[in-house]
Amino acid sequence: MSKSGFRLSLAASLLISAASVQAQSLPEGAQKDLVQSACAGCHGLERIFRSGHSERDWETILHMMKNVGATLPDDALPGVAAYLAGNFPEEPRAEGKAIAGPVQISFKEWTVPTRGSHPHDPLASLDGTIWYTGQMDNALGHIEPTSGRITLYHLDTPNSGPHGLVADRGGNIWFTANFAGYIGKLDVGAGKFTEYKMPSAQARDPHTLVFDQAGILWFTVQSANMVGRLNPKTGEIKLVASPTPGSSPYGMVISSKGVPYFCEFGANKLASIDPLTLAIHEYTLPHADSRPRRIAITGDDIIWYTDYARGFLGRFDPASGKASEFLSPGGSRSQPYGIAVAKGAIWYSEAGVRPNTLVRFDPGKGEFQSWTMPAGGGVIRNMMTTHDGNLVLAESGVDTVALVEIK
Ligand code: HEC
Question: How confident is the model at residue 388 (pLDDT cuts 50, 70, 90)?
Answer without folding.
Answer: very high
